[in-house]
Amino acid sequence: xxxxxxxxxxxxxxxxxxxxxxxxxxxxxxxxxxxxxxxxxxxxxxxxxxxxxxxxxxxxxxxxxxxxxxxxxxxxxxxxxxxxxxxxxxxxxxxxxxxxxxxxxxxxxxxxxxxxxxxxxxxxxxxxxxxxxxxxxxxxxxxxxxxxxxxxxxxxxxxxxxxxxxxxxxxxxxxxxxxxxxxxxxxxxxxxxxxxxxxxxxxxxxxxxxxxxxxxxxxxxxxxxxxxxxxxxxxxxxxxxxxxxxxxxxxxxxxxxxxxxxxxxxxxxxxxxxxxxxxxxxxxxxxxxxxxxxxxxxxxxxxxxxxxxxxxxxxxxxxxxxxxxxxxxxxxxxxxxxxxxxxxxxxxxxxxxxxxxxxxxxxxxxxxxxxxxxxxxxxxxxxxxxxxxxxxxxxxxxxxxxxxxxxxxxxxxxxxxxxxxxxxxxxxxxxxxxxxxxxxxxxxxxxxxx
Length: 450
Fold this sequence. Notes:
450 residues, two-stranded antiparallel ribbon, mainly alpha, 2 strands, single chain, globular
C-alpha cells in the first residue's frame, strides 16, 4: 500500500482545518459559553474560523457570549492563526531542542514564502520571540487605560486586545461596539494602530529596518538607501495607503454627524486615520461602519482588499502585489521592457504571481458576494463590505454578520478560510520550479488585447 504524500500546499490547508475543527469542538462545550449552555455548531464553527483566520467577523458578541474559558480558546486560536500552526509546532520543537528534518524545513520555508533555507531556524526563533515581545509591550501600554476602567480584569483585556491587534484579528472583549468607546483616546488609538501596522508590515521588513537602524550610527541617513527593494516597496506603499486613505475618509466623513461630524479637528484626524489603519485587515471599529458615507465605505473596501504586507499577520492581496501590478501597468503604458521600482527591474515570475494572487482573491470576493446576495437578501453595499472583509480577513462589518442565516454564515466562514489560505497556497505553488520544462517551445503568435 502506497503511503499518501501530501504537498506543502495540502499540509498548510489541512493545518488550518485541523485548528478550526479543534476550536469548534472546544467552543461548543457548555464551559465555553457565558450562559453555560452548549453553543450551536454553526456559531462555534464560525467563531473558530474567524479566530483562526484572524478575521474578526462575529455572529455573537465576543464580550458577552463567551465565558473566560471561551475567551482563552479564542485567543489561542488567534495566536495560532496569526503565526500559523506549522510555525507554532516548529517553534516548540526548536525551543525544546528537537531535531527537524529536511521536509519540515521545506515546509517552514514555504509557509513563510522564503526564497531559501539559509538561516531558517534563526528566522523562526526571531519571529516567535519578536511576536511575543511586541504583544507584551502592547499589553503593558494598554494597562493604564484598561486597568483604570476595569480593575484587575483590565490586565486580561489588555493582553487579549494586544494579541488580537498584532495578529490583525480585530476581535476584542471590551464592548459589543468594539473600540467605539475609545475612539478619541489617544493612547488606545496609538497603541492599537502601532500593533496593527507592525503585524501588517511583515517580519522580513522588521529585520531589515533593525539592520538599517544599527548602521545609521556609522553611515548616517545614507544607510536608508541600503534597504532591500521589498522593504522599500512595503514601507512606501503602506505609508501611502494609510495616510492617503485617512485623508479621503477625513474629507468624506468631515460633516457626517453619525461618525466624526461633532468631533474636534484633532479627533476627526485621529479617527479617520484609525479607520484607514484598521481596514488594513485589523477589523477594530472605532465608528459604526454602517454609518459611514458611501464614498468612505468604498475606500474602506479597497483598503481591505489590498490588506497588509507579505510574511506578516495581515491578509488581503498585500501591498507588494498591488505595487507590482501598478508597476506592470505603467511599464505597459510607457512601452518599457520590464516593470521596475526604485531602480530595480521586477522579474516576469513576480508579475505572474501578483496577477494570479489578485485574480484568485477577486474570484473569491466575486463568488462569495454573489452567493451571499442570494442567501441573505441584504443591501449590496453591506454584502460587498462583508465579503471584502471576509476575503481579506479583516473583520469589519456594516452590522450584517449577526443577522445572517445558517447558510449565509457558512458562506462567510468558507470565504474567510479561502481568503486566508488561498493566496498562501498560491504563493507556495509558485515557489516550486517546473521540473518538466519542455525543450520544445510552442510558437508565439500576436493577439489583440483591449
